[in-house]
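Fill in residues.
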């Protein structure tokens, strides 16, 4: 018979500990980091309800910053045992950049994209609330076979849940609020699923950036500046954003003023009232979404020149034109009624900006009332 602990772990959506692994318990008033330091690969750390103010540790990817909890070993699972009214809360004790960071010491892009020694594998986070950090709430860099479930990030300065340069993983049944960049972000990564999450009160609710093989499905984005973004940006270690699927999401009433902190950050240019924005991405499939109540626009596909200076030419190596994106069976209504002034000429349910469309862009069986370019112009049809 499996132990109660193993049954609990399985119920939280993380793999049960192997027979040789230990279950380490952390009680309120104790240190999560001390338990992590004592753990061996494969161990599961069960954390009781309470508020945890960790003394902090140098962050694994930038030792000039401090993180509340740092995991640098493979196959470590952090599992919170709190309940809705009694959460496991990890809160910034002061001057800490990241809440819980999973990465090998010294890992960095682009090196970790090809160097297995810089990659962490098999880590998991479940049942935590992470609040008030200067940068990211939950941070994963160069991670493979990782998972976040039933975790909440509140009022972190930049990002809520942030995997970057990572391989196969999943973010599910989690909530991100109050980030001044993105609530739930996937950047320079591949084969990640983001499903059944809520993002609200952020600048960007969900963002896929320079990634491939990402599926973002069955999520809700509301009360953000922009609900769902899929961007290709220049100058990154992974140059393209392609072959992602965004489906069965609700992106509604994303009309929050943009509160980004760094004026040089591209997300500062996202206009309030954006439902979904596909920028310079290739072969993204956007289907079966409901997009409504966004005051500037519903679903828009745009050139990368919206964010970067393309005069006299785009940055070297940056393909600004989206190609082969497919928009099918989305319901996009009630958008564009009170747009940001600069975007007023384009405000509509569906927007295909002039010069944005490359080969293979197409629209099929979508429900919408207004479009840009306006009728009688016809959006390119899917075969």
């Amino acid at each position: 018979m499996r132990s109660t602990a193993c049954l609990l772990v399985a119920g939280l959506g993380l793999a049960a500990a192997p027979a040789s692994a230990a279950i380490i318990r952390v009680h309120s008033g104790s240190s999560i980091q001390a338990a992590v330091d004592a753990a061996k690969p494969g161990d599961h750390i069960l954390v009781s309800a309470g508020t945890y103010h960790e003394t902090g540790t140098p962050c694994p990817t930038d030792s000039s910053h401090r993180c509340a909890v740092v995991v640098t070993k493979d196959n470590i699972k952090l599992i919170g045992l709190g309940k809705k009214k009694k959460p496991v809360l990890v809160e910034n004790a002061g001057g800490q950049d990241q809440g819980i960071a999973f990465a090998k010491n010294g890992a960095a892009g682009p090196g970790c994209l090809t160097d297995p020694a810089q990659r962490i594998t098999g880590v998991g986070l479940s049942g935590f609330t992470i609040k008030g950090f200067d940068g990211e709430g939950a941070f994963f860099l160069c991670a493979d076979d990782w998972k976040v479930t039933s975790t909440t990030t509140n009022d972190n300065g930049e990002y809520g849940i942030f995997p970057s340069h990572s391989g196969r993983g999943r973010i599910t049944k989690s909530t991100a609020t109050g980030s001044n960049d993105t609530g739930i972000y996937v950047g320079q990564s591949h084969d990640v699923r983001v499903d059944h999450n809520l993002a609200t009160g952020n600048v960007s609710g969900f963002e896929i950036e320079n990634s491939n093989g990402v599926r973002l499905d069955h999520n809700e984005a509301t009360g953000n500046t922009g609900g769902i973004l899929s961007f290709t940006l220049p100058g990154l270690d992974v140059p393209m954003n392609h072959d992602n699927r965004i489906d069965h999401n609700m992106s509604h009433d994303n009309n929050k003023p943009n509160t980004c902190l760094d004026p040089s950050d591209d997300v500062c240019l996202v206009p309030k009232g954006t439902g979904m924005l596909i920028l310079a991405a290739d072969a993204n499939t956007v289907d079966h979404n409901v997009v409504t109540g966004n005051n500037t626009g519903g679903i828009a596909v745009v050139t990368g020149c919206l964010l970067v200076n393309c005069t006299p030419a785009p940055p070297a190596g940056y393909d600004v034109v989206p190609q082969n994106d497919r928009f099918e069976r989305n319901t996009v209504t009630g958008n564009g009624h009170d747009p940001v002034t600069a975007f007023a000429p384009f405000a509509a349910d569906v927007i295909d900006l002039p010069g944005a469309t490359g080969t293979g862009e197409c629209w099929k069986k979508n429900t919408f009332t207004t479009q840009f370019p306006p009728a009688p112009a016809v959006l390119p049809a899917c075969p």
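The chain has one domain: 49-372.
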